[in-house]
Design brief:
Helices cover 0% and strands 43% of the residues. The protein is an all-beta fold. Strands 1, 2, 3, 4, 5, 6, 7, 8 and 9 form a 9-stranded antiparallel sheet that branches.
Amino acid sequence: MSVPFNPVCTTRRTDADMSSSPWLIVKANGDNDMDVAGAGDAPIGILTSNVVDATGLSPAEAYLGVQIGGIGKVKFGGAVTAGVSVKPDANGEAVAATTEGDIAIGYAWETAADGDLGSLIIARHEIGS
């Protein structure tokens, strides 16, 4: 597995339990927080390994690291081939983005199987455009 390279990271507030969500794709939600992305959601980045249960914490206490650029680590939810566009599945894991209109988080940097931790180039784009 490749390691993150030239990461562009930020922090994002959450009020959700993210303690079991490292390396998953995240989205912004309507109250300026983040949640794990689901199928069809527009991704904003990948949660890093610094995760917590933020349920009940004040907003000042619940900022987590999110990688938004560079080559990052992600959990794959299906088999993908290096170079394929990837998007979040229902669990926030990376799967192939093949349908026109899919919003991809980036491109698989390496071939991976379901459940693998692997690398991707973070480059958000829409399939077919």
